[in-house]
Amino acid sequence: MTRLRLWGPAILWMAILFYASAQAQTGSLGQVPDWITHGAAYLVLGLLLGRALAGGLDRPLPPRLALLALLLGTLYGVSDEFHQSLVPGRDASAWDVAKDVAGCSLAVALHVLRTRRDV
Questions:
Q1: Which 3 state secondary structure label does DSSP give 15?
Q2: Closest by Cα among 47, 43, 68 to 56
Q3: Who contacts 72 (Cβ-Cβ below 8 Å, separation ≥6)?
Q4: Residue 11 in 3-state DSSP?
Q5: 49 contacts: CB under 8 Å, gap ≥ 6
Q6: What do you get for the CA distance between the two ends of the chain, in Å?
Q7: What is the distance between the alpha carbons of residues 63 and 112, in angstroms, rounded to a whole number?
Q8: How many Cα neighbours within 13 Å face the side chain of 16?
Q9: Which of 39, 84, 90, 108 is buried most, with the most CB atoms less than 10 Å from its CB?
Q10: What is the DSSP string of 60-117?
Q11: Which residues of 19-54 are buried (b: 16+ CB within 10 A; e: fewer)?
């Protein structure tokens, strides 16, 4: 699988998150509980990062790469909150980062468990 096919979806999803964070009004998504939107958005990001690092959804994600996926997702969550703090009408929250990390962690754990090879 080419690098673009592996990393393109993760980068595209990060761009979508960046765009969403740049909006002063959250529209109908503002009516959905925050933990659901953050958790779901970063669950998707975690799945895409794990897929890219493993070389595919069906390939095992070794512990070192699982930690890297979690670190990348966390750093993106922190940068996303900083970005939101610059948007009028939006603010940054450590709790939002915690929700992001929870979603990303769940995705990485699911990838590891789903592709675990028993020896």
A1: helix
A2: 47
A3: 49
A4: helix
A5: 10, 69, 72, 73, 104, 107, 108
A6: 26
A7: 8
A8: 10
A9: 108
A10: ---HHHHHHHHHHHHHHHHHHHHHHHTSTT----HHHHHHHHHHHHHHHHHHHHHH--
A11: eebeeeeeeeeeeeeeeebbbebbbbbbbbbbbbbb
Q: pTM, whole model, 2 decimals?
A: 0.91
73-109 pLDDT, tens per residue? 999 999 999 999 999 988 899 999 999 999 999 999 9
Contacts of 98 (CB under 8 A, 6+ apart): none
Structure tokens at 30: 């503002």
Q: Whole-angstrom Cα distance, residue 74 to residue 45? A: 10
Residues ≥6 apart with Cβ < 8 Å to 10: 45, 48, 49, 51, 52
**Which pLDDT value is given to residue 28?**
63
What CA–CA distance (Å, rounded) separates 20 from 80? Answer: 10
Largest CA distance in the chain: 54
Rounded distance, CA 94 to CA 61, Å?
Answer: 28
